[in-house]
């Protein structure tokens, strides 16, 4: 039988705290979502001033990254390159800003961020994941 890592409550707190710190350091008002490997919501935080829609988009980006096993920007790029049929995939936020959390080659969850430019959303997610010291 094979065993694999899972996100703990402590892991989620570390990721969330680091993501919030990065967002606040840059004065970015965002929503941060963290999901498990099945895309189920473990954490959601809408910072003051974040757009209301971001609380729907951030979990969607996280879910897309977790279920798709890759950054959500990959799907955005595929669609932008003309493969519009990909819009039929049952994922709700195929936009940059969802980043999978990978441990020993396994996706154990993902972080989704929404509220600023897409590359800034992704940077916040990556800053959160970095707190787990997985490198």
Count of strand segments: 4
The CATH class, by name, is Alpha Beta
Radius of gyration: 14 Å
Provide the number of structural domains: 1
Q: Which spans have pLDDT < 50 for at least 5 consecutive residues?
A: none
Helical run tally: 4
The name of the CATH superfamily reads Haem-degrading domain
Walk across the major sheet and give the strand order.
2-1-4-3
Structure write-up:
There is one protein chain. The protein is of the alpha+beta class and about 140 residues long. The protein has a single domain, classed as Beta-Lactamase, CATH 3.30.450. It has four helices and four strands. A four-stranded antiparallel beta sheet has the order 2-1-4-3. Strand 1 and strand 2 form a beta hairpin. Helix 1 packs across helix 4. The longest helix has 17 residues. It is globular and about 40 Å long.
Keywords:
single chain, 135 residues, alpha+beta, Beta-Lactamase, four-stranded antiparallel beta sheet, 4 helices, 20% strand, globular
Short description:
InterPro entries: GlcG_carb_metab_protein, PduO/GlcC-like, PduO/GlcC-like_sf. The chain has helices at residues 9-25, 54-68, 73-80, 118-130; strands at residues 31-36, 41-46, 98-103, 106-114.
């Amino acid at each position: 039988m094979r065993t694999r890592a899972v996100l703990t409550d402590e892991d989620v707190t570390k990721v969330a705290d680091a993501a919030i710190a990065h967002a606040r350091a840059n004065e970015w008002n965002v929503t941060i979502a963290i999901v498990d490997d099945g895309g189920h919501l473990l954490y959601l935080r809408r910072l003051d001033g974040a757009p209301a829609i971001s609380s729907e988009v951030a979990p969607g980006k996280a879910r897309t990254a977790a279920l798709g096993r890759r950054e959500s920007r990959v799907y955005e790029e595929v669609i932008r390159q003309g493969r519009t049929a990909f819009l039929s995939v049952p994922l709700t936020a195929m936009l940059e800003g969802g980043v999978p959390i990978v441990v020993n080659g396994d996706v154990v969850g993902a972080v989704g961020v929404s509220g600023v430019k897409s590359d800034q959303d992704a940077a916040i997610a990556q800053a959160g994941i970095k707190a787990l010291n997985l490198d």
